[in-house]
């Protein structure tokens, strides 16, 4: 078996060449630091749900950029990229199939507006959009439905998070929130 890669904060990365498997065309990026999001005990209690608490706060403090009737948009407190947004229904539901038709429609509409606003303000060239449904699927907050909108740019990937254990986010969250909130069309949010 190949020797393990050097240790990163006590976690060893290993090569797969020595394991019994049929090789495929995919490369794997092992991210053991993400286990904190899926291990037992990492989910907040329902009464401590950050997505239920956020709408009760001032928009600036909760990082909310827009509010709709059934859902709202806020910056991710732990972004993958600058401008990483979340679209959440106000109602505390865990999965997309529990959402009402009105919630589904507004989540979709807010997502489209978010894409337009991020394209205008951040000049992004693409997006990763998705929902992790349930703890087993890697949802950081599994009890409250939320959709990620991650802006992407050519050449925005680097190995800083893996090698240095650090994610470089070039702008402060409050700055980004203010810019997106100012650019949000007034007719699409309350």
Automatic annotation (TrEMBL):
InterPro entries: AP-4-A_phosphorylase, FHIT, HIT-like, HIT-like_sf
Domain HIT residue range list: 50-159
Signal sequence extent: none
GO terms, molecular function: catalytic activity; nucleotide binding
Active site: residue positions: 146
Keyword Nucleotide-binding attributed: yes
Residues annotated as binding substrate: 76, 148
Pfam family, one: HIT
Chain location of the short sequence motif Histidine triad motif per the record: 144-148
Domain of life: Bacteria
Alphabetical keyword list: Nucleotide-binding
Classification via PANTHER family: AP-4-A PHOSPHORYLASE, HIT FAMILY HYDROLASE
Name the record gives this protein: HIT domain-containing protein
Organism: Microcella daejeonensis
